[in-house]
Every structure is written in structure tokens, then in C-alpha cells.
Amino acid sequence: MQDPVEGLDGRAGLAEGEDSQLRPQAPDAQASSQNSATEGDHGNVPRSCPQDSGRPAAPGTLATPGSQAAPGSPSPGNTVGSGAAAEEAAVIPHSEQATLVPGRNGDTASTRNRHLEFSVTVPFRTAMEAGMARRSLVANARPQQVMVQQEFTANDSILAVRWTTDDPVLFRISINTFLDQLSLVMRNIQRLEFVAVVKRGRGRSRES
Amino acid sequence: MELSGEYVGCDGEPQRLRVSCEASGDADPLQSLSAGVVRMKELVAEFFGTLVEQDAQGLAEDPDDALDGDDEDDAEDENNSGRTNSDGPSAKRPKPAS
User: Fold this and answer.
1) In this chain, where does the modification N-acetylmethionine occur (chain B)?
2) Chain A 65-124, residues with CB within 8 Å of chain B CB atoms
3) pLDDT digit string, tens, across residues A90-128
4) So where are chain B's domains?
């Protein structure tokens, strides 16, 4: 009597196992329920047990593709990600080169295009003297403007002169010419002062 | 009083030339300034003299000169190859006599 009871318990256990395995997947659960009905019909035959053990393997094999699909789906994503990373890695050096090359070229261009500059500041005693010198020197410098750019600025009693050119030889010629003319202007200013003093002296002598 | 000059080259670095023009005692300030101008002329001549020499040396060491030399060598090679071609007919002339 006990033997039939044990047999029923075993079947019930198998059914529960199958149900628990198949519950996550509805189609598999339905298939297993049909199989279990068939098994119930052939329960008396002991040979059907190996077949039953073989059939549960099918759900396992079905589950395996699912498990494979799960890791499969991330792998393409990983590939895409690695591809994107590779693209980013490829782009970054390119962008860096793009940023560096213009900089280098810019530096080279700026270095090549940079003009030579020379400036002189002359401190006169008064703004009037600085103004007189500037007017005289500007007139003399006009013929040289073609080769060398000159800029004269009188700020109060300070005269500032600036040259710009590409050729250092022209620099030397132009600056030497300016300094010679500056000396001449200073002498003229001194003479004007001397003449003024003399005139004042004569005026005083007449008054006396 | 100070007479000053400043040079800025291709590298952008400023170089300054300074001449003091202090009047001593009752000396005329313009006279002192005139003396300063003379001194500045000397400094400018010295400074730009050195600069021009450096510029000339830079041109002499220009790599393009080496390339020009290579071009001359190539021209000589072409002349030599021409000479070799001219020898061809003279070698062939003895054959008709035999």
C-alpha cells in the first residue's frame, strides 16, 4: 500500500518541479501541463519515467539560448561602446592636432610677419620745445616714410618717436638721420633762446 | 633726464638703450641733452652693427643654399649624361667601314 503512495508523491514532486521551472515562461508552462496530463495517462507504465526525465531537458535547453541571449545582447553594446570610445580616441588626437597645428602655424606666421620696432623718448624742458622739435622732425621724415614707417608723438615735454620696418639696415640709417636732425633742432632752439635773451637785454637798455 | 631707446625684434623681446642727461651745476639742460644724443648715436651704431652682422650670418647659413648646391649638382649630372649620349654615334661609325 505504501508503494503506491510513494509513487504518487514522486509524481507530485516532479509536477511541482516542472511547474516551478516553467512558471517564469508561460508557453513552456502550457507545454509542460499538456505533457503532465499525458504522463498522468501513462503513469502506470514504468518505462515512461526515462522519457519524462528526457523531456524536462528540453526546457533547460530552451533556457540556455535565453541565457546566451542575455550575455549576447551586452556584447554588441560593448562592441558599439568600444567603437565609440575608439572613435572618440581617434577624434581627440585629431582635434588636438587641429588645435596645435594652427597654433604652431599661427606662431610661425606671427613670427614671420612680426615687424622690427625701435622707439626713442626725448625729454625736453618744456612742452613748447617738444612741439617745436616734433614739427621740424616730422617735415624732414616725410621722404623716408616710403621705406620705414615713423610715428612722432609729443606728450607734454616728452617727444616719442617710433620706427617700424623689416630691415635692420634701414633702421640704422633712419635712426641715425633722426638723431642728427635732433641735434640740429636742439642747436636751433638754443640759438632762439639766445636771441630772445639778447633782445630782452636791448629792450632793457633802451628803457634805462 | 634720460634719453632712452627700445628695440623689439622678431622674438618680441624688448632691448633697451639708456643715456643719462643730467645737467651738472649751471650747465644748460639742452646742452646736456645734445651730448646725450651724441652718445645715443654711438650706442645705436654699435647695437645695429651687431644686429646686421647676425642677420647676415643667418642668411649665409640658410638651408636653401644647400638645396641650391644640390640643384647645381643635378645640372652637372644632366650635362654628363648628355656627353655620354654624344659618344654613342662615334662608336657606331667604325662599323660601316668593316
Assistant:
1) 1
2) 111, 114, 116-124
3) 233 333 333 333 333 333 344 445 689 999 999 999 999
4) 2-61
Burial group, residue A50, by CB count within 10 angstroms (0-12, 13-18, 19+): exposed
| A175 contacts chain B (CB < 8 A) | yes
Interface test with A, best of B3, B17, B38, B54 (most A CBs within 10 A): B3
- The model's pLDDT over B20-68, given as tens digits with 9 standing for 90+, comes to 988 777 788 889 999 999 999 999 999 988 888 887 887 777 655 444 4
Cβ-based contacts of B41 with chain A (< 8 Å)? 176, 179-180
Residue A51 CB: number of other CB atoms within 10 A?
13
**B44–A179 CB contact, under 8 Å:** yes
pLDDT reading at B19 higher than 90: yes
Please, are residues B6 and B14 in contact by the beta-carbon 8 Å criterion? Answer: yes
- Stronger pLDDT, A129 or A147, i.e. the higher one: A129
Ramachandran area for residue B22 (φ above 0: left; ψ -120 to 50: alpha; else beta): beta
| Cα gap A92→A34, rounded to integer Å | 61
User: In the Cβ-directed half-sphere of A158, how many Cα atoms lie within 13 Å?
Assistant: 9
**What structural domains and CATH numbers belong to chain A?**
116-197 (3.30.310.50)
CA–CA separation, A176 and B98 (whole Å): 83
